Fold this protein.
Amino acid sequence: MNGKAKRAGKEILNKAKTLVIDNKIPKYLWPFVEESVVRILNLLPLTANKRNASPYKIFAESVGVPEISVKPYIRHLRTYFYDAYYYVKLQDRVKLDKWAPKAKKGKLIGYADLYGRIFYI
């Protein structure tokens, strides 16, 4: 009875495992990896439906989202676990040090919204 759900879960787990192993991501970050895999799978088109549309587009059309928001936004997607820089606020920097860095280096580990304004680093 749960064949489709089990297959979908297995596909998500296999893709997440591949990302973790290939990029040498620490295992404690697996929830972020799985969440990112699900988010990306929902934005990309699938051959499982007749129109080759993304799950996001099908859902948006079925609930009556305005036409401008039906097409999934994917311009914010970046290569996973690559170097990313985040801004260090003024109050967190070393005072009176003109040469203190204004950004720190991290790794991109996930996406927090649909339009690329928030990333997990």
User: Anything to note?
Assistant: The radius of gyration is 18 Å.
